[in-house]
Amino acid sequence: MVKAFLYLHCGDLVSARGFYFEVLGLTEIYSSADEGTVGYRVGDLQITITRHGRTVPAEGWAKQMGWDGGSSAAPSWGIEYGSSEFRCVVERARAAGVEAFHSDPAWVGYWSFPVKDPMGHTVEISAPSRDAWPPPD
């Protein structure tokens, strides 16, 4: 089995944790206030976020394949959800005031809802099923 690790740095660990845990709903595998570090599991990927005082936020929207937009060469990633979880994540992102590229998810062969994390990285929230959006009445 292959595992991947992504290391991010932030100026505000509370905001980063709020985004990745509370908005995206990722599985938190550890948190250390003393070390200023929090970790999440996404499939076979582990995301580790560490507080770092000299962090410079990413600028602009990263260019990603699949959706028309973004021009920055900054690192970015996407997270695919099932239909009902996708709707929940989009609504949590909206309620939290997360910056989004589109006001509503866009169908680009899958549902795409690019947002920015607190460090300015582009994170595409997506769902492959046509019935994932719009939410049921």
How much helix, percentage-wise, in residues? 10-25%
Q: Look at the structure and name the CATH superfamily of the largest domain.
A: 2,3-Dihydroxybiphenyl 1,2-Dioxygenase, domain 1
Give the tally of β-strands.
8
- Strand fraction: 25-35%
CATH class of the largest domain: Alpha Beta
CATH topology tier name of the largest domain: 2,3-Dihydroxybiphenyl 1,2-Dioxygenase, domain 1
> N- to C-terminal separation?
42 Å
* Structural classification: alpha/beta
The ordered string of helix (H) and strand (E) elements is EHEEEEHEEE
The CATH level-2 architecture of the largest domain is identified as Roll
Give a topology summary:
Layout: E1 4-10, H1 13-23, E2 27-32, E3 37-42, E4 45-51, E5 76-80, H2 83-95, E6 106-107, E7 111-116, E8 122-127
Parallel strand pairs: 1-4, 5-8
Antiparallel strand pairs: 2-3, 3-4, 6-7, 7-8
Structure description:
It is a single chain. The protein has 137 residues and is of the alpha/beta class. Helix content is 18%, strand content 33%. It contains two helices and eight strands. The chain has helices spanning 13-23, 83-95; strands at residues 4-10, 27-32, 37-42, 45-51, 76-80, 106-107, 111-116, 122-127. The radius of gyration is 15 Å and the shape is globular.
